[in-house]
Structures are given as structure tokens and as C-alpha cells.
Design a protein that fits this description.
About 30% of the residues lie in helices and about 25% in strands. The protein has about 450 residues and is of the alpha+beta class. The chain binds shikimate-3-phosphate.
């Protein structure tokens, strides 16, 4: 497998128009409910679509990524009603009920949609084409094509990238797949293809990753056996429509967790956040750095642990981030880099080369932005050494390269910077957290759109 690092494409015409002026606000205070989990929302639509009967989803993320998934399943012949914000009723068509789409299926910016769908569509009787936006079209897809090919799938790509043309009518055979990249997207793609394979498909991963697909398959009545790092399904199972309660997205909560930790005088309560143990690595790392975060009102909702998180301001110190925590906080490194930049001393991140193939090359883009704020940061191929210091305002526009998590991370940085921070190309925040700016302002952020 030969994967190129992300070239960080410049914004396309019209894409870079929206920008923010972020600056110090008030101490963060009150209750915040962040939107539903992106990973769970994608999967709920997918499994609901191939189930028998109706699936009701509560707490669905109204983001561009997850809406793209819903649109794709409508194109594949599934009726999906949206009676109110955050609610979807999916009228499942059964394992073999999807119909070919005459048009390409557009995943937009959503890597999760593209990779999981590649697995699911590999098992259909018809051909499909998956496309994405400029950023997604540069992300590595060989990592999903190769394991699916081992099951018998036929997928053509543009030199390992989208567009992906998935040939239908292949007889998939269950087998053992040993992934070399720790990625829940790849594991899930294999499991979804495994539903259409003859016999048993067993997937192992080099480090355990989020297990939402496995848990949700179980919730839909499929005998999916799983333990950290391995999962098994048998082909031909029937999924039964069910109710899915989507917890609040830990990755969206992460921006508020760090902001309240950094801004003196803050005390914030984040309500009913999803606490899947494979997602909460940032919590452990922030606590190692000195953060004051308590867990309250813990419960289990729809098979997922949730709790309220109370965060009080606390000074941080630099640490070596344990490599074992990397997969459990893979989406949280942009905001961790901000915490590290404000900590006393040095923070070292290793074993995180995956960051280079996310929505942007997150190591390079964060390093560039932090340098504009006066922070010393040394990049390595798989991480960075961040020297904590005093954040200045930005003389130049900080480019988020259309990466939602970069934009939100720098909005947090601005809450403790000496001067305004200008953040460009922020429209993509709508992919995962459409109301971030309004919610952030309500909690105390200084943040406005630039005309
Ligand atoms: C996701 C898995 C992770 C994560 C992404 C969502 C998922 O990607 O970064 O935001 O829902 O399975 P990788 O599988 O590439 O690590």
C-alpha cells in the first residue's frame, strides 16, 4: 500500500469565502449540549437502510457529512423521513433491497461515508460510483480497497483515490482480514461487506478502534462477536429495524473541554456526552496535563455510555502523549495542539502519522497556524514537539484548509491569545458542527464572522 501524504489543497473558488474573527471573550460558563455523534449518525442511517422494518434515529447530527449519507441512501431507493431536527425515520429495504443509482453518489467531505459505503456497496448486485469534494478526492482509499479485494470485491480508483467505481455482482467470500492501519472506517467497511459474504468474516486491527459498527450491528439483532481489536460477522444475517439514540459527539465536546480548561474563571457543564472508551483518549491526556474535569450523571443510552462533563479552569503542563492513546483521540489532535501550546513546558506527540491523511495534513496545518501565533513547534513525520508559550494574535489569516477541526481549534486558541485571530475557510465547520459559532458565543467565546 503506497499512500501519499495530504497535499493540503488550496480552497476551491467560492469555498474559502467564510472566515471568522476570534478574540478573547468571557470566562466560559453554563450548560452546553453539543450535537449528535457523527460516527453513530452515519452508521444508524446505513444499518437502518439495510434492515427489515423501520429505524427511528433520535439525536441525528444535522451536519453536511451525515446528511450526505442520508441523501445517498435515498438515491439507493430508501425512504428516509426527517419529521424534525435531529430525527430520522429510515424505512429499511432489507439486506438485498437497495437499488442502483444512475447518478454518482456524492460523499462530500465525509471520509466515513466513503469508506463504509465502499464496503457496503461491494456486496450489491449493481455497480456504484462514489465521489467526494476536493479534499476527500485526495484521501487514501487503497487502504479500504485492498482488504475488500481480499473478500473478492472489485473496485476501481483513480490511482488509489476517489472516484471509486464499485463493481456489483461479485461473490464475496468471508475470510480473515488483518488490517495494518488502526482505523474504525476500514474495520467497519470490512464488516459491512462481510454481511454480504459467504461464511465468516473476521477482522483484526493493530490497535483497537471505536466499535460503533459492532455495537450497532448487535442492536440490529446481528450476531456480531467482538472484543477490543477483533470482530467477526457471518454473511446473510437479517438486520431488524430498531431505535437508535445518538449521544452527543465527544469530538465536538472536545473544543469546549479545552476552552474551559484554558480560560481563567471558567466553569462549564457539557451535557450527556458520548463516552465510548475508544473515543475519550483526550480526557485522559488532558487530566495528565493537569485539567480539572469531573464526570457526573453517568448512564448508558442505547448501549453507549454517556455522562455530563464539568470542566473548571486549570493550568496545564506539557507531557509526552502516550502512544497507546493516539487511536482513542485521533480526531482531537488539533485541539490538543492548542492545549499544548498553552501548557507550561514541552508536549511531545508521536505515533500519529495518520494525522497527515485526515481532512487536511493536520500536523502541517496546525504547525503553520501555531507559528503564526508565536508558538515554537517542531514537526516530525508522525507528530510534533510543541513548546508551550504565550499565544499572540495572528498578523496573517490562519488557513484551516477547509478542515472543520482546524477552524474550531483556532477559535479556541483565540480565547487566550493577545489579539484577534483571523481564521479563513471555515465553511466546513458545518460538516460536523453546524451551530458551533452560536453555541460558542453563548458559552462566552469571542467569535464573529468577517464580512
Ligand atoms: C471514524 C473513524 C476515524 C475518525 C473519523 C470517524 C469512524 O477515522 O478519524 O472522524 O466513524 O469510523 P479512521 O478510521 O480513518 O481513523
Amino acid at each position: 500500500m503506497n499512500e501519499r501524504p495530504h497535499p493540503n489543497p488550496p480552497p476551491q473558488a467560492g469555498e474559502g469565502d467564510v472566515s471568522w474573527i476570534a478574540s478573547r471573550g468571557e470566562p466560559l460558563y453554563g450548560d452546553v449540549i453539543v450535537p449528535g455523534d457523527k460516527s453513530v449518525s452515519h452508521r444508524a442511517i446505513m444499518l437502518g437502510a439495510i434492515a427489515e422494518g423501520v429505524t427511528r434515529i433520535e439525536g441525528f447530527l444535522e451536519g453536511e457529512d451525515t446528511r450526505a449519507t442520508a441523501t445517498i441512501f435515498r438515491q439507493l431507493g430508501v425512504q428516509i423521513d426527517a419529521p424534525s431536527d435531529g430525527v430520522r425515520i429510515v424505512h429499511g429495504v432489507g439486506l438485498h433491497g437497495l437499488r442502483a443509482s444512475q447518478e454518482p453518489l456524492d460523499c462530500g467531505n465525509a471520509g466515513t461515508a466513503m469508506r463504509l459505503l465502499t464496503g457496503l456497496l461491494a456486496g450489491q448486485a449493481f455497480d456504484s460510483t462514489l465521489i467526494g469534494d476536493a479534499s476527500l478526492s485526495q484521501r487514501p482509499m487503497r487502504r479500504v480497497i485492498d482488504p475488500l479485494a481480499a473478500l473478492g470485491a472489485r473496485i476501481d480508483s483513480n490511482d488509489g483515490c476517489a472516484p471509486l467505481r464499485i463493481r456489483g455482482g461479485q461473490a464475496l467470500r468471508g475470510t480473515q482480514i488483518d488490517l495494518t492501519v488502526a482505523s474504525a472506517q476500514l474495520k467497519s467497511a470490512v464488516l459491512l461487506a462481510g454481511l454480504y459474504a459467504d461464511g465468516e468474516t473476521r477482522v483484526s486491527e493493530p490497535h483497537p478502534t471505536r466499535d460503533y459498527t459492532e455495537r450497532m450491528l448487535t442492536g440490529f439483532g446481528v450476531a456480531c462477536e467482538f472484543a477490543p481489536g477483533v470482530a467477526t460477522v457471518r454473511g446473510g444475517a437479517t438486520l431488524h429495524g430498531t431505535e437508535v439514540h445518538v449521544p452527543a459527539d465527544f469530538s465536538s465536546a472536545a473544543f469546549f473541554l479545552v476552552a474551559a480548561t484554558l480560560v481563567p474563571g471558567s466553569e462549564l457543564l457539557l451535557r450527556q456526552v458520548g463516552m465510548n472508551p475508544r473515543r475519550t483518549g483526550l480526557l485522559h491526556v488532558l487530566r495528565m496535563m493537569g485539567a480539572d474535569i469531573t464526570e457526573e450523571a453517568a448512564s448508558v443510552q442505547g448501549g453507549e455510555p454517556v455522562c455530563d462533563l464539568r470542566i473548571r479552569y486549570a493550568p496545564l503542563h506539557g507531557i509526552e502523549v502516550p502512544v497507546d492513546h493516539v487511536p482513542d483521540m485521533i480526531d482531537e489532535f488539533p485541539i490538543l495542539f492548542i492545549a499544548a501550546a498553552c501548557a507550561q513546558g514541552v508536549t511531545v506527540v508521536r505515533g500519529a502519522a495518520e494525522l497527515r491523511v485526515k481532512e487536511s495534513d493536520r500536523i502541517a496545518v496546525m504547525a503553520c497556524g501555531l507559528r503564526s501565533l508565536g508558538i515554537r513547534i517542531d514537526e516530525t513525520p508522525d507528530g510534533a514537539t510543541i513548546h508551550g508559550g504565550k499565544l499572540q494574535g495572528s498578523a496573517d489569516l490562519i488557513q484551516s484548509h477547509g478542515d472543520h477541526r482546524i477552524a474550531m481549534a483556532f477559535a479556541v486558541a483565540a480565547q487566550v491569545a493577545d489579539g484577534d485571530v483571523l481564521i479563513g475557510d471555515v465553511a466546513n465547520v458545518a460538516t460536523s458542527f453546524p451551530d458551533f459559532d452560536a453555541l460558542a458565543r453563548r458559552a462566552g467565546f469571542g467569535l464573529r464572522s468577517r464580512d
